[in-house]
Amino acid sequence: MIRVTRRYRFAASHRLHSEQFSEGENRALYGKCNNPHGHGHDYVLEVCVSGPLDPVSGQVVNVSTLDQLVASRVVQDFDHKYMNADVREFQEVVPTSENILRVVEKRLAAQWNSVFPGGGTHLESIRLRETRRNVFELRTS
Ligand code: NI
Fold first, then answer.
1. How far, in Å, from the CA of 24 to the mean position of ligand 1?
2. What's the CATH number of domain 2-139, 3.30.200.20, 3.30.310.50, 3.30.479.10, 3.30.70.1290?
3. pTM metric for this prediction
4. Residues designated as active site
5. From the CA of 51, how far away is ligand 1's center (Å)?
6. Where are the domains of the chain?
7. What pLDDT, in 10s, does the model give residues 19-74?
8. What is the DSSP secondary-structure string of 101-131?
């Protein structure tokens, strides 16, 4: 079993604000991330895939196939967007990095079996670097 990690980048803005809380509670919970007009990050997204080595291609995953999937289902929709308004899932949930990971996982999982048929190629984990101090990781198993 070999793991391959591929790195992507996108720039996006967000505001951390929940309708479940009052204005004061939002400010207390999210601090400056609750500022009304949002702020941006240069996100780094790492997608980690595992699987058996294909003896013919010598590869675990076709990287350009993975790139196409991540570009069409994630990067195109997120890059240079205000996520709260422009990415439909974030009309329901707050675009924290934790929730971004869940949305990315769901979007990739929805297409996974048609893009990588046969079941040998697994989405192992997704990491999201939001700032120099914050890295989040979702493990699928
Ligand atoms: Ni932020």
1. 18
2. 3.30.479.10
3. 0.96
4. 33, 80, 130
5. 34
6. 2-139
7. 999 999 999 999 999 999 999 999 999 999 999 999 999 999 999 999 999 999 99
8. HHHHHHHHHHHHHHHSTTS--EEEEEEEE-S
